[in-house]
Amino acid sequence: MGHRLLLLEHIGRKTGARRYAVLEVVERPAPDEYVIVSGFGERAQWYRNVVANPHVRVSVGFDRDVPAVATPMDREAAKATLDNYAQNHPQAWARIEPTLAAALQTPELDLPMLTLSLTRR
């Protein structure tokens, strides 16, 4: 899967069932930390599940099924991270940004982000 995408296993907040989402890694601030973004805002079901139960499992690169804890980023840090992503990945951002703006029906993107901190066994 590489390091640009990760598989996030989370628990359904209503059903208690395991759920999965493949997400792009927006930033990697430390070797055992990954920042992910909810492109559809706070209404995304995976995001709502993780906020309700931040204990998740992550598969990325050579790491498989590693326990992690998700922590929401504050809005200022999330905006700075998104700006940094746009600078580092201009071609990807040129395709992604209009799609997100259309889906959220707003030109100003205020996307929630989470930091996943791996808690190795």
Give a written overview of the molecule:
- This protein has 121 residues and is α+β, with helices and mostly antiparallel strands.
- It has one domain: Electron Transport, Fmn-binding Protein, Chain A (Pnp Oxidase, Chain A, Roll).
- Helices cover 31% and strands 37% of the residues.
- It has three helices and seven strands, in the order ββββαββααβ.
- The chain has helices at residues 45-52, 75-88, 90-104, and strands spanning 5-11, 18-24, 27-30, 33-37, 55-60, 63-72, 113-118.
- It has a seven-stranded antiparallel beta sheet with strand order 2-1-5-6-7-4-3.
- A hairpin with a 2-residue loop joins strand 3 (27-30) and strand 4.
- Helix 2 crosses helix 3 (90-104).
- The model has no long low-confidence stretch (mean pLDDT 92).
- InterPro entries: F420H2_quin_Rdtase (IPR004378), Split_barrel_FMN-bd (IPR012349).
- It holds the Pfam family F420H2_quin_red.
- This is Nitroreductase.
- GO terms for molecular function: oxidoreductase activity.
Which strand order do you get reading across the main beta sheet?
A: 2-1-5-6-7-4-3
Structural class: alpha+beta
The top-level CATH class is: Mainly Beta
Outline: globular
CATH H level, superfamily name: Electron Transport, Fmn-binding Protein, Chain A
Task: Please give the radius of gyration in angstroms.
Answer: 14 Å
Strand segment count:
7
Please tally the helical runs, counting DSSP H or I stretches of 4 or more residues: 3
Proportion of residues in β-strands: 35-45%
The CATH architecture comes to Roll
* SSE topology string: EEEEHEEHHE
Q: Which blocks of ≥5 consecutive residues have pLDDT under 50? A: none
Largest sheet: 7 strands, antiparallel
Q: Which range best describes the helical content: under 10%, 10-25%, 25-40%, 40-55%, 55-70% or over 70%?
A: 25-40%
Provide the residue-averaged pLDDT. 92
Number of structural domains = 1
- CATH topology, by name, is Pnp Oxidase, Chain A
Distance between the termini: 21 Å
Organism: Mycolicibacterium agri
Pfam family, one: F420H2_quin_red
Protein name: Nitroreductase
GO molecular function, one term: oxidoreductase activity
